[in-house]
Amino acid sequence: MMMREFNIPQYFRGEEKEIPSAYIFPYRVEKSTDKNRVVLTTHMFSFLKEGNKEIVMGDGTIKLNKSEFVLITAGKCFMSEKISDKGSYSTTLFFFDNDLLQSFFEIQKVHVQQTIKKNKLTQKEVLLFKNDDFTRSYIQSLNYIANKSEELARLKLHEIMLYLLETQPLEFCCLFAERPKTSEEIKFKNIITSHIDSNLSISELAYLCNVSLSTFKRKFTAVFNDSPTSWIRQKRMEHAAFLLKYNKERVSDIYLRLGYENHSSFSQSFKSIFGVSPKEYQLHD
Q1: How do the domains of the chain map onto residue ranges?
Q2: How far is the C-alpha of 170 from the C-alpha of 116, rounded, in Å?
Q3: Residue 285: what pLDDT?
């Protein structure tokens, strides 16, 4: 069954409405969601107010709480939203197009380029920032101007980007850095290896690689000389063994993280690789 894909911010605005260059959208739900397939057609700040958020993109996973906020660049990703103990998930989303980003860069070009060069920064798909007194007040101010003029939203965008450039420059300037020039095969490998310690399925990995499932399987076999199911199970069990032996983690914590629905199926996979159950492996000196 094909999972639904959300084009954002079109989903919030309605397909027939034009997307402003800068658009603020307060978002609140009372039900948790898991791994929504999302296509971001603009860049987006997500200022979390209640609950927890997880973003999965090609180069890794970020788990977010109220002490942080993120800037997510346009592209494909998975998003999970977990409601708080109070029963809701709430965030303020700030969408902005690439022209506004480029305009800011042109104004701050010397400062940004010096920071990138001095610190040898490389580009990131998701940028994580720490909240402070200013950003908490800033987030509050966004709620008063949501659905107001586009020009006012542009000014608020410039405000937060300028503040981050001054206070968290190493993270912020990664937005303007270039990615190292790598082959398509290396990019493919990086996406796979970045998500070994995750519960992503093969079809979900194919989604992040932006290819069909059948193409993914063919490419995977050509690159790794093994089937996706076999290779990924081997690597995840090796990682599980490390967590059991050296981190002394509980089996119940590990199998959920690695995408197994129950203890039994995880134990069977583990035993097929190591010849003993996870618990026996952990107790054996």
Answers
A1: 5-175, 184-283
A2: 8
A3: 59
Can you tell me which residue has the tokens 């997880």?
Answer: 54
Look at residues 51, 49, 48 and name the one whose alpha carbon lies nearest to residue 33: 51
DSSP for residue 175: G
- Would you tell me how many other CB atoms lie within 10 Å of the CB of residue 124? 19
Q: How confident is the model at residue 2 (pLDDT cuts 50, 70, 90)?
A: very low
- CB 103 within 8 Å of CB 33: no
Strand, helix or coil for residue 5: strand
DSSP-derived letter for residue 87 is S
192, exposed or middle or buried, with CB in 10 Å at 0-12, 13-18, 19+? buried
Q: Classify domain 5-175 at the CATH class level.
A: mainly beta
pTM: 0.81
Q: Is 91 helix (H, G, I), strand (E, B) or coil?
A: strand
Query: Looking at residue 247, what is its pLDDT?
Result: 81
- Cβ–Cβ under 8 Å, residues 264 and 225: no
- Say if residues 191 and 76 touch (Cβ distance below 8 Å): no
CA distances from 37 to 24, 59, 189 (A): 21, 16, 21
Which two three-digit tokens encode residue 67?
């002490």
Task: Specify the CATH class of 184-283 in words.
Answer: mainly alpha
| DSSP class of 2 | P
- Inter-CA distances, 217 with 130, 206, 209, 221, Å: 39, 8, 11, 6
